Amino acid sequence: MTRSTTETRPSEARQRLLTTASKIFYAEGIHAVGVDRIIAEAKITRATFYRHFPGKEDLVLAYLNAADQGIRHQTEAAIAGGATPAESAKAVAASIAESIRTPGFRGCAFLNAVAEYPDPAHPVHQLVLAHRQWFLDTVTTLMAGINEAEPAPAARHFVMLRDGAMTAGCLFDPEIIAETFLRGINGLIDIRAAR
């Protein structure tokens, strides 16, 4: 039996809601934006909104899940482009630096979200932690590929450099921040590879 197009893809209205909410949540913050504004800007009815998302929290989780998938694809593509673990790790860093340089950059969607949802038991906070654990695990695997000795501290160092760059990139000149970030990551990787 063949599935219909509507069964395999999200509805156009759902996608429009998610795209609209993602843009506004990222630019202005999650708590600062109400459902009424998202409905108005997405040009859908309130009934359509609630048919796709039982509440705002469901939309927030969908926004972060979409951001997670985007970052996973970006990271996987960077890793696939590297011939060695060191080149792959540098490619991941280059993709992060490129995102810092994009117009409208407002930092890390996950760090921004967790600042608004500090309760560790909250589903948004849990999703942020899961995303960050995946990224740390991915970088740890790369660091182990460069040098098997103690990859975890090097991976945490990479992630901390990334977090600092993502924060500073929306406060200061993104070109300088991206360059500084890449210099730090390249040094970390080169030192690890030379051991």
TrEMBL record:
Check the record and name the Gene3D superfamilies matching this protein: Tetracycline Repressor, domain 2
Q: Where's the HTH tetR-type domain? A: 11-71
Instruction: State the superkingdom.
Output: Bacteria
Q: Which InterPro entries match?
A: Homeodomain-like_sf, HTH_TetR, Tet_transcr_reg_TetR-rel_C_sf
Q: Which residues bind DNA?
A: 34-53
Which keywords does the record carry? DNA-binding, Transcription, Transcription regulation
| GO molecular function list | DNA binding
Q: Which Pfam families does its entry note?
A: TetR_N (PF00440)
Which PROSITE patterns does the record match to this protein?
HTH_TETR_2
> Where does the record place a coiled coil?
none
The protein depicted here goes by the name: TetR family transcriptional regulator
Highest lineage ranks of the organism? Bacteria, Bacillati, Actinomycetota, Actinomycetes, Micromonosporales
